[in-house]
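Incident log, structure service

09:12 report received: a user says their structure output differs between two submissions of the same chain.
09:20 pulled the input from the user's history:
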Amino acid sequence: MVGALVYSAAMRMRYVMLMVGVLAIGRVAAADAQCMWANVPYGADAISCQRGAQMKCVDGLWKPTGSQCADDPGDPTGEENQPGVVQPPVGND
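09:34 re-ran on a clean worker, output below:
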């Protein structure tokens, strides 16, 4: 009789530990979930401008931050265009 109670308690403890492990793994997986936008994967907590609204990747879903942004990616050469600023000529022109 005592052996059966000890066995039953041990099985319950194993079950509880298994459930705690499953829940912990689920939380880690959700925290590392990526978001996709325009066929580009973004990591957790990434910020993206989507249709004029700033969005943040939270648990694999895009959530609005409440801020506006410009969808224009800017100058693809990486050089900032400043209106009214004339760039000096390069070379012997």
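09:41 both user submissions now match this output. Likely a transient worker issue. Closing.
09:42 reviewer note: Residues 2-68 form one domain. The first strand starts at residue 35 and ends at 37.
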